[in-house]
Design brief:
By secondary structure, this protein is an alpha+beta fold. It is built from 25 helices and 32 strands. Strands 1, 2, 3, 4, 5, 6 and 7 form a seven-stranded antiparallel sheet that branches. Strands 9-8-12-11-10 form a five-stranded antiparallel sheet. Strands 14-13-17-16-15 form a five-stranded antiparallel sheet. A hairpin with a 5-residue loop joins strand 18 and strand 19 (454-457). Helix 3 packs antiparallel against helix 4, helix 16 packs antiparallel against helix 17 and helix 17 packs antiparallel against helix 20 (699-737). The longest helix has 39 residues, at 699-737. The radius of gyration is 55 Å and the shape is flat.
Length: 904
């Protein structure tokens, strides 16, 4: 080829006309469903800035700018009017002022594009001559020397009078042109009736800024791109799900605001099937946008598939390398980087390429010559890593071909055989060592054939089971197990043959001398290369002593846990009754006996059973006392040494007859006694009874019983001390809350009580009253009769006030020197005044002589305040109200009670 773009005729197709040579103007109405309506003009005046008086559809310019395909609009003279960026890149005119220039003028000014511009001009002329859309393929040689080709769809446009209006060209990659031809054939002959927008193969919507659909183009026959309820004039909110419509409006507004093309991908479900869509949205007027909707479902699926393939290649354990058709290394995966220590493609290229990996250049040449014509090569080769280490790999090399069979690259897959070779070398050595291990291992090695007969027997097996190798070979496996398990031998053997891997078990076995031994067996089937079981191998270890030791330790551990749990439950409480009830219950369970009691010894040396745990049908001993003949005081000193006494059988132990006779109604055959000491004296005894048969008390039971009794004694002592401490604290609290002189509550107790009652009445939404009392002319009384008489007077008045206050929740307190205060929770004004008058009368009834008082005896003034407490109020306000009422009572002449006019 001479480098000039040429038309390839066998790829061209001329679309025949159906009616006349005339076609619609560019402002012809766009197709609609179900009826048609004309779109708005290019601008407000109906003029196009490029074509003068001729109006362009408002779809056109933004559509052309947003398309990925190359699109060119020319006038009737062949002058360029509008081209998108894809076309400018193809014709090498980026940044060129092309408007109003012909292909000939552009090729003179920009010779780099001369060849393709000339070919495009020829196709213009062909389209005008034929007056219909044509398809053709153009090939040319690029400046780089590479052969390039494109397919062009050229459509001539006519005015209504039949005169030439212009042309529109759409340029595709050759692979895309095949799809377009199929699409055009399915739509039938369009001829000169084609609208300029029909050259765009995507669904297009013309929208208002509020989402209303004004027009549409290229609606497919199957409604997979849009919902079935699609109709011109509806809002996108009426045809799409709310989430999709809301997101789409976001891009519409962004396109109007920024003036830039917005690209948006979304998923939509139509007829139960999910589709992937790509929308490109661009502004075409102040409040209008064009949306191009393209089905990208296949692309998304292909991308996902490619992603899976890429992940698989990267995660492959084999080293994979790919080169282009010229042998240039272009890719390798992570396993390749790990094996050969070249992290990136550039590192390997800089080192000399994949050929440097081979230790033998002849082998590298042989491989390349084999795959150059498209054949495969497989074999084991030695290769060298970046650090110089030699590795043995299994290499599979092959050519990569495109669908036409053309070789476009090569791939090599390397499996590291270094470890395998090392294993093979070590295998022989391992076989030599195996025999030595079998002879020296302390484990019994036993091999059975498929009939269950012993075919291998090492010295350790002779030691464990007592049979020599000569005696045992050929014998069945049942010989090693007790006769009681012979019936299970067949099932055991079948399980061994069917298991997929090794199995571990602990079994009781029989030695040659008849003694029983416990062995731990690890058994596994021996599988050949075809997956068939050929034998069963077993390892056995004598663990008799270990099992017995573990069993003893387990029993010891169980006992210790039981004692610890019992002790923990005994210590959970400081209440003596709870401690004793818990102790007898836990001890009875620990000893698994029939009855446990606690016998307490009183200060007068008598005693009785205070706590008991007994199981039916044995009678209760609760409250039972032991006479001196049964439990004489002389025994107390013997028990004070803290020792436990255990009797398995009362009659066999030569126990006193009186004791046997006393315990006989209660069914006691054996017993165990432990003292409970408190402050070096015998507080009582803990007694366990066995009624059902004879119980032989074991050493661990005696030790545990002794330990529990010791801890129970400590718990009793702690409970006693806690009770004494509680009593002391109560007395201290009482003393701290009383006024030392009058023996009513002091000021501290008053403050605590009034705040506590204030919070409680708020919660309960009830009334609360306070009375402040002051002895009239008390200073004169002290001056006249002396302070000793004054103290006596205070005591009498305090007692009179306390006698007047009846309810437990009420509180009388000494508030100051001669002042007293009364807190009356849940009391209204009427009740508070009644209590105040009772206090006044009680004090008056004392008739304490007071010569300096106008009434001649001691009297009292009272201030009463009442409120319904609220969270926003304060108790101090209530006290101040009572104080003001007291002041008013004194101002009015004393010896009276005044109710405060308090308001919250």
């Amino acid at each position: 080829m001479n480098g000039k773009p040429q038309l390839i005729q066998q790829e061209s197709r001329i679309e025949p006309s159906s009616e006349s040579n005339q076609g619609p103007e560019l402002d012809t109405q766009l197709s609609r469903s179900p009826q048609a309506a004309g779109p708005p003009s290019w601008d407000g005046e109906g003029r196009d800035p490029l074509w003068g008086d001729r109006t362009l559809s408002p779809w056109l310019k933004p559509l052309i700018e947003s398309l990925e395909e190359s699109v060119i609009l020319k006038d009737e003279r062949g002058c360029w009017l509008l081209a998108n960026q894809a076309a400018l890149r193809l014709f090498q005119l980026i940044g060129v002022e092309y408007g109003g220039k012909t292909n000939h003028q552009l090729s003179q000014d920009y010779p780099l594009a001369q060849e393709i511009l000339s070919a495009d001009a020829e196709s213009d002329q062909t389209a005008w001559e034929l007056s219909t859309t044509i398809y053709h393929r153009v090939e040319w040689t690029a400046p780089s020397g590479e052969l390039q080709s494109v397919d062009i769809k050229k459509t001539p446009l006519f005015n209504s009078d039949g005169t030439r209006q212009g042309t529109i060209s759409v340029v595709w990659d050759p692979e895309v042109s095949d799809r377009l031809r199929v699409e055009e054939a399915s739509r039938g002959t369009l001829g000169r009736q084609k609208d300029a927008m029909e050259t765009i193969p995507d669904l297009m919507l013309y929208l208002k800024a509020d989402g209303t659909i004004l027009d549409c183009k290229n609606v497919p026959e199957q409604t997979t791109a849009i919902p079935p309820n699609f109709e011109i004039g509806l809002s996108i909110y009426e045809i799409w799900p709310l989430s999709i419509a809301t997101e789409g409006m976001k891009y519409v507004l962004q396109a109007l605001e920024t003036g830039e093309v917005q690209t948006w991908e979304y998923e939509v479900t139509v007829h139960g099937k999910c589709y992937n869509r790509e929308a490109r949205i661009m502004a075409c007027a102040e409040d209008r946008v064009v949306a191009i909707l393209r089905d990208i479902t296949d692309r998304k699926q292909a991308e996902a598939a490619l992603e899976y393939v890429a992940q698989a290649v990267e995660s492959a354990s084999d080293a994979i390398a790919i080169s282009d058709a010229n042998g240039n290394h272009i890719y390798h995966n992570l396993a390749f980087s790990t094996l050969f220590e070249y992290g990136t493609v550039e590192e390997l290229k800089a080192a000399g390429g994949p050929s440097i990996l081979y230790t033998d250049p002849e082998v590298a040449r042989e491989i390349f010559e084999a795959i150059a014509p498209g054949q495969s090569w497989i074999g084991s080769v030695e290769q060298r890593t970046r650090s110089g280490k030699i590795v043995q790999v299994l290499l599979r090399a092959d050519a990569i071909k495109d669908p036409t069979g053309k070789i476009i690259g090569r791939i090599g897959i390397s499996t590291n055989l270094t470890a395998q070779k090392q294993v093979e070398a070590a295998l022989q050595q391992s076989k030599q060592k195996l025999s030595l291990h079998l002879e020296q291992t302390p484990l019994a090695v036993v091999e059975f054939n498929l009939h269950g007969e012993i075919v291998e027997w090492n010295p350790a097996a002779e030691t464990i089971f007592g049979y020599s190798k000569g005696e045992i070979l050929g014998q069945g496996m049942a010989l090693l197990f007790p006769a009681t398990e012979e019936r299970d031998a067949g099932q055991r053997w079948q399980d061994l043959l069917e298991q997929k891997g090794g199995a571990c078990s602990i079994c009781e076995n029989v030695r040659k001398d008849g003694q029983r031994t416990i062995c731990e067996w690890y058994t596994t089937p021996l599988i050949d290369r075809h997956g068939e079981t050929i034998a069963v191998a077993s390892l056995a270890q004598d663990i008799t002593e270990r099992v017995r030791a573990e069993e003893a330790m387990r029993h010891q551990s169980d006992r210790e846990r039981l004692v610890s749990r019992t002790l923990a439950r005994i210590r959970q409480s400081l209440n003596l009754e709870e401690i004793l009830n818990t102790a007898v219950s836990e001890v009875r369970q620990f000893l698994d006996c029939d009855r446990v009691v606690v016998y307490q010894i009183w200060p007068d040396q008598s005693g009785s059973v205070v706590t008991e745990s007994v199981i039916p049908p044995w009678p209760s001993m609760l409250g039972q006392s032991f006479g001196e003949e049964i439990f004489p005081p002389s025994c107390y000193e013997r028990y004070c040494n803290g020792r436990v006494k255990a009797i398995d059988d009362l009659k066999a132990a030569n126990s006193p007859q009186c004791l046997i006779d006393f315990l006989q109604p209660f069914g006691v055959n054996g017993k165990m006694i432990a003292p409970l000491l408190h402050e070096n004296r015998l507080w009582g005894i803990l007694v366990a009874h066995q009624c059902n048969g004879i119980h032989h008390w074991q050493p661990f039971e005696i030790r545990g019983f002794e330990q529990l009794s010791t801890q129970l004694a400590i718990a009793i002592q702690q409970s006693t001390l806690f009770k004494q401490l509680e009593a002391a604290n109560e007395e201290l609290q009482r003393i701290a809350s009383l006024d030392g002189l009058t023996q009513v509550a002091n000021r501290r107790a008053f403050d605590e009580c009034i705040h506590r009652e204030w919070r409680r009445t708020i919660r309960e939404h009830s009334m609360m009253s306070v009375i402040l009392c002051d002895i009239d002319f008390f200073k004169l009384y002290n001056d006249t009769y002396g302070h000793q008489a004054g103290d006596t007077c205070l005591k009498q008045v305090a007692q009179a006030i306390a006698d007047a206050v009846k309810r437990p929740a009420d509180l009388v307190a000494r508030y100051g020197g001669e002042e007293f205060a009364v807190i009356l929770p849940h009391t209204n004004a009427e009740g508070a005044m009644q209590v105040a008058q009772t206090i006044r009368n009680q004090v008056k009834a004392l008739r304490i002589h007071h010569a300096q008082s106008p009434v001649g005896y001691v009297s009292i003034s009272l201030g009463v305040a009442v409120t319904l407490p609220r969270p926003q109020d304060s108790v101090e306000k209530l006290i101040r109200s009572a104080d003001r009422a007291l002041y008013e009572a004194k101002s009015l002449g004393r010896d009276r009670a005044v109710l405060a006019k308090y308001s919250a």
